[in-house]
Every structure is written in C-alpha cells, then in structure tokens.
From TrEMBL:
Stretches the record annotates as Disordered: 352-378
Cell compartments where the protein resides: Nucleus
Organism of origin: Lithohypha guttulata
Boundaries of every Xylanolytic transcriptional activator regulatory domain copy: 44-118
Protein name listed in UniProt: Xylanolytic transcriptional activator regulatory domain-containing protein
BP-aspect Gene Ontology terms: DNA-templated transcription; positive regulation of transcription by RNA polymerase II
GO cellular component, one term: nucleus
Alphabetized UniProt keyword annotations: DNA-binding, Nucleus, Transcription, Transcription regulation
Length: 477
C-alpha cells in the first residue's frame, strides 16, 4: 500500500501544473522521509535535490522582510519546511558522502516559534500567541544540525590538519555540544535510561540523544588514527595528550550510549526498519568501535585500551546490534552492502582479539546473517598483502582493470570534503603515512593497513559505488 501511494504521489508531483509552491516542497519532504524509511537513499537524494531547488527559488531560506504580506500560518510553515530540509541535508550529506547543498552563509531564516498548530489559525500577531507547542525537540534538532555542519567544515576540510589543529578543533566541538545540551529543557536532556514509551517526548528524547552522541563521534573519531604508541610518532605535550584522551573518552562514551540505547530498543521490540536515523547512528558507532579496538590492539591509544572501555562487553553489544540491524535491509540495497563491509571489518577485530585472549562469546541466539558469512570465509582464503595490492604487475589485465577501479572507488569512497590526512601525506590512501607504524610481516598489521587503504572513515557512507571490489571478497557483485 505504501509503495502504491508513493508512486501515485510522485506521478502527481511530476504532473504538477503552474508555479512551484510551498506545498510542493512539503510533499517532497514527505517523500524523502518515506524513501529513507525504505532504504532508498539515492532516490531520496534525487527528490531532496528537487525540493531544495524549489525552496531556494521560493526563498524560504531567507527571512521575510517586514513589508511582506504573508499570514502567520504560511510564515511558520516556511520556517518549518526549511529547517526540515536543513536537517535532512546534514544527514544525507554524511550518509551518501556528498557535500551539503545548504550553506550557512546563505541562510538567515529564523527557527519556527513553539506555537501549537491550532493557534496558528488565529489572526493575532505571532508574538502574542502562547508558547504551548511541541516544537522544542524540532528546534533543538535544527540547532544540533548546525553544529554537525560546523563539525564537518572544521574537522573534515579539503586541506590537511596538523595534530594540534585536529585536537583543538575536536575539543572545541565537544565544548559546543556540551553548551547545546545545557539549553535543552529537562525532559529532552540525554540520559542513560532509554525511554521506550508511547508518549511523544520520549521518542524525541531518544532521537536527540542519538543525534548528539553521533555528533560527538563525528567530532572525535579522527583522533583514533593518531598513533600515540609508536616511538617514531611526533611527541605530544602534556596538554595535547590531555586533549587527545578527552576526545577518545568522549568518543567511547558516545559509542557506549548508542549501543546501550540500540540494545534497549531491540530488546523492547522498538527498533523498526523504518527508523532510519537509529540504524544509521548505530552503524556509525559500531564501525568506529571496531576501528578503536584494532587501534587498541596495536597499542596506538594514549594509554591502555582497558582503561578506556570494557572490551568484552562493548564488543558483545556491538555484535548483537549488528546482527539485528543486518536483518533489516531488503536484499540488494546499499544498506545491505554496508553490512557486508561492516562484517569484513568485524572479522578483523575478531582476529585481533583472538590473538590476545580466548574467543569471545556472543549474545544468546545471535547469529551472523548469511549475508556476510560466505564473504568472510572467502576472505580468509583470498586476503592479499598490501605489497600485492600496490603492484599491478602481479595481476592479469582484467584483474588490473578491477584493481584500478577499486583504487579509484576507494578514493571516491571518502567524502569529498573530508581531509586526506592528519598532517603528513597528500592522500588518505597514501600508506607511507603508516609505513613506519606497522610491522611488515605482521598479519594483523597488514590487515589493518589494508583497512586504512580502503578508507574506514567512510564506513558510515552507504552510497558508494563499489564496482571492482568483488575480486577482494567484499561480496558486492
């Protein structure tokens, strides 16, 4: 039924006569949300781009002048529609690895007033209406989206960042996110216990908690690639070391909160397939945790890994959440491809952990979906060394073409506006950055080097074109 309704809606919008209107934008926003809930990211982006074009043509990103004669209802609808577009723009940007369409320098539209819908029908001036609406969470989410946009611009620029710049910007963003939390009303402030009731504010509280913890991961995860344990690494001052530890602890705290929240939703039967934001945030947390664990195995963190987190508990929760989330996407979708990549990364973690302790258990009745099982078995037989990957002469002409496609896609897999290094080489895929940090004859280090060459920071980017990777057992053919 929903598919038929969406197809009918698209057909009507394609035949829409006359000039564009605010209703056109609102209808397309509704379609975008439907496409996200049904794992159709590219179609969502296409529809969003059209809605964005109409929005800028109508000027809803700009504040209305005092001389404009528009009633209160339309004025507030313009505000709400624009900030819906703004929030969606931020999420689609990081999910698809593409630049944001809306730039803050072009926007002066204020946030909507917290007025109940029924009161907007009044002929009274807006400033005289009671503030008894339920838009606190929406406005808070819009403010958070602005902070996420700022984090993307500052922490993932085109140019390389020095270690000091990275740590300073990361800590500045953490301060800004803390300030944002202090502005929330008490019933919306993130808390350890996940609310799973039916009341509106409970779901709003959960969404904001997931949103701010996701923003904390975006603000801190680049610090995980700073090798603090290698003797040839650049020396850090005591203050820099304190900043690094804060960033890593905040990142771990955010990961744990997301895993706890997702686990609670799963156990209460409330992690639905249509909850696209919950799934996306959880997958970002899981992939970041796996990289953190691999770094910890390499002693690359500023301190013992056990001092930062309970490895066994976090890894078990991550596997439990991953197993459930992998069962949600339909076959042959981009989200399914993401889970194949995540399963590959998980196998690296399991191999690293098994080398230092007995194999970890798993949640009862949690089975890895068949989606990635075959690929992981193939991977154990087909893993190639970095030396072979970098030497095209070892492949047949057909394989060489596939390798070139893989290398090109791996570069494109990284978001266009993310930095290519932490302050050394010109490209993230230039492994000379890590050549002095890894032991050439170590299987675990070679696997980690291979993972870095693929671009782990884009594991949360679901919409990459993956042609050519099937020869390396990523299972994306």
């Amino acid at each position: 039924m929903s598919m038929a309704c969406s197809e009918r809606a698209k057909a009507l919008l394609d035949k829409e006569p006359g000039p564009a209107s605010l209703a056109s934008i609102q209808a397309r926003i509704g379609l975008c949300l439907y496409f996200l809930s049904t794992f159709r990211l590219n179609e969502c982006r296409y529809t969003y781009s059209f809605a964005f074009t109409i929005a800028t043509a109508l000027g809803i990103h700009r504040r209305l002048s005092s001389s404009t004669k528009i009633n209160v209802l339309e004025t507030e609808c313009r505000k709400r529609s624009f900030w819906c577009l703004y929030i969606l723009d931020g999420y689609l940007s990081v999910m698809l690895g593409r630049p944001r369409l809306i730039r803050d320098d072009d926007v002066d539209q204020p946030f909507p007033e917290n007025v109940a819908d029924i009161d907007l029908m009044s002929s009274e001036p807006i400033h005289t209406l009671p503030r008894h609406g339920n838009l606190e969470a929406f406005v808070a989410h819009a403010r958070l989206a602005k902070l996420m946009a700022r984090a993307n611009d500052q922490l993932y620029p085109l140019y390389a960042l020095s270690s000091d710049q990275l740590l300073q910007r990361s800590n500045d963003m953490l301060d800004a996110l803390s300030d944002w939390e202090t502005t929330l009303p008490e019933f919306l402030k993130p808390r350890a216990r996940t609310m799973t009731g039916q009341r509106t504010f409970e779901r709003q509280n959960t969404i904001l908690k997931l949103g701010v913890t996701h923003a904390r991961i975006l603000a801190t995860r680049r610090c995980l690639l700073m090798d603090f344990g290698h003797p040839n690494a650049n020396p850090f001052s005591q203050s820099s070391d304190a900043r690094a530890k804060r960033s890593i602890r905040e990142c771990i705290s955010a990961i744990i909160m997301i895993l706890d929240t997702t686990t609670c939703l799963i156990e209460h039967g409330q992690c639905y397939g249509s909850f696209w934001s919950t799934q996306y945030v959880a997958l970002v947390a899981i992939s970041t945790l796996y990289v953190l664990l691999i770094q910890g195995m390499r002693h690359a963190l500023p301190g013992d890994m056990e001092s930062f987190l309970n490895v066994d508990d976090c890894f078990e929760k991550a596997k439990y959440c991953q197993n459930h989330l992998a069962s949600l996407p339909p076959p042959r979708t981009q989200a399914e491809r993401h889970h194949v990549l995540l399963a590959h990364l998980r196998s690296k973690v399991e191999k690293s952990l098994s080398s230092r302790r007995k194999p970890l258990g798993s949640y009862e009745n949690s089975q890895m979906p068949s989606l990635g099982t075959t690929h992981l078995q193939d991977q154990s037989q087909n893993t190639m060394s970095i030396a072979n990957l970098n030497n095209n002469s070892n492949f047949s002409p057909a394989q060489s073409d596939g390798l070139q496609n893989m290398q090109a896609d791996a570069a494109a897999f990284t978001r266009p506006f993310e930095p290519n290094s932490i302050g050394g080489p010109d490209t993230m895929n230039d492994m000379s950055m890590f050549s002095t940090m890894l032991t050439p004859n170590s299987n675990s280090d070679t696997n980690f080097q291979y993972m870095l060459d693929f671009g782990w920071e884009s594991l949360d980017t679901i919409g990459a074109n993956m042609r050519g990777h099937e020869m390396y057992s990523f299972g994306l053919s």
